[in-house]
Description:
The structure is a single chain. The protein has one domain (about 5-215): TIM Barrel (Alpha-Beta Barrel). The protein is α/β, with parallel strands linked by helices. A 6-stranded parallel β-sheet has the order 5-4-3-2-1-9, sandwiched between helices. Strands 6-7-8 form a 3-stranded parallel β-sheet. Helix content is about 45%, strand content about 15%. The termini are far apart.
Amino acid sequence: MTPQEASHRTAEICRLAPIVPVLVIHDLAHARPLAEALVAGGLPALEVTLRTPVALDAISTMAGVPGAEVGAGTLITPQDVAAAKSAGATFGVSPGATDRLLDACEAADLPLLPGAATATEAMRLLERGYAVQKFFPAEASGGAPALKALGAPLPQVALCPTGGVSAANAASYLALPNVLCAGGSWVAPVELMAAGRWDEIEALAREAARLGTASA
Length: 216
């Protein structure tokens, strides 16, 4: 998969909904009902971070939920890429980007949303062919004003901000012309998952899905 092909596919996934839930799953039993609730609420693109022992099994489980587009987050090494692909991930997300990681994703035909926080990082990725990128950590890197400023000299780069994005500030990001979607964890609070309150998570997803309409 070429970087251009990867970016095209990543853009399609980003356009599925205004918010991509960033999920940290500790209990495998939560995987399927969580995916079902989020998809039912209008958020089909799901990022499962590789930060817990059950993350890969969770990806495999969630990939079987109708309508779910399940990706693996926190890809750092080529080994992460191989494991995510084997688990059934259809896209990957990384906090940054290295040549080894990009090579591995391209060889594995795994579309990647590579991370960038500066103009230089964004330009290097664009030079390689990645026109769709993750802006991380969004709030710590200047938030929506910084993203707006990057869009002036680099309008050809489309971004998905994550890191500090919340229900309170997501609309300010989504209103920017260079933002395709945003990633956030608030739609799947740990306490609601632990309590099995999937209807409340679905309600949060519905509210998040409406952010795209509000910012259009």
